[in-house]
C-alpha cells in the first residue's frame, strides 16, 4: 500500500492529509508533528486541510507540500461536495486528524482514504479505523506532544520506522532572516537595533484569558526598572480589532518614560508572523501570536489561567525549554484570577531571562 512490510521509508507516492482546521495557536502547535513526519521520511507528501485564515502560515511551513482550504462547517452543500471531490482526487494513503469533528471524520470516510487516524474522543471516532486514546482533557502533556504522538502512531500504522524527534525551532528560517526583519522594522518604526526589543501582545484573540492592559503596563514598568543600562524598546502588537488597546498601552508606557511603539498593520498574517523573528522576547497570553513566536524559537513569556484545560503545561509553547517562561494564578486563587499573578516575580524572571540570553549572545 504505502511502505514495505518490514518498515523503512515509504514510496514517494505516499500522500498524507493532516487536519488541524481551527485557530492559529492550535495550528502552530501542529508544526512539531509535521516536522517529525518530514524528518522520518522526506519522501512523504504532506497536505494540510486548514481554514482560509491560517492558510498564509501553512504556505510558509517548510514541512507542508500542499495546502487545501477548508470552507468550514457553515459552508453550503456545494462547498462541502467540492471539498469531498478534492479529497477523493488527492488519493491520500492516510488521514491524520489532530482534532476531530464529525464533519471531518465523515469527509475522510467518504473520500475513501484507507488509513484514517484520530484521537479516540467522542462519537466522531466512529469514522476512523485507527484511534489513539490520549485523554487530553487531563492536560498531562503539552498539546504539541500529543500531536507528535498521533504522528508517531500514524507512522507505525504505515509501517514506517520512526526516527528521533526533531528539536526546535519547528519553524527554521534561512540564516540572516531575523537581522533582515530587524533592519526593516528599525527603519519603519524609527527605533534602535542596539537595544532589546520586547514585543507585548495584550489582546486575547477572543478566547484566551489574559492580563489586563493595566497589568501589562505595570509589568513593563517593573521590567524596565530592572534593565539597568540596557532598557528595552517595547513593541505593541495587535490582532484584528485590537489596535486601539495596543495604542492605549503604548501611550501608558510612554507616559511612564518607557520607549514604546505600535507595530503597524502588516500585509497579512504571514507578514505579521515574520516580524516576530525580530523579537528578543515575546510576551502574551496563550494566543496565536505567542505560539507563532514559540514555533520560531523566540524567547517567550506566557500568561495562562489555572484551568485544567488551559494550563501552562497543556498549552506550552514549542520553543526550547531555555527560551520559555510561563505564569499562572497560584494555588488557592480562582482559576481565571489573573490579578493573583505576582507581577514582581514575573518581571524578575523575565529580566533574568533577557540577561541570560544577552550574555549567551555576547559570547559569540
Automatic annotation (TrEMBL):
The keyword Glycosyltransferase applies. InterPro entries: Glyco_trans_9 (IPR002201), LPS_LOS_Heptosyltrfase (IPR051199). GO terms for molecular function: ADP-heptose-lipopolysaccharide heptosyltransferase activity. One of its GO terms (biological process) is lipopolysaccharide core region biosynthetic process. Keywords: Glycosyltransferase, Transferase. It comes from the Bacteria. It holds the Pfam family Glyco_transf_9. One of its GO terms (cellular component) is cytosol. This is Lipopolysaccharide heptosyltransferase family protein. It comes from Billgrantia montanilacus.
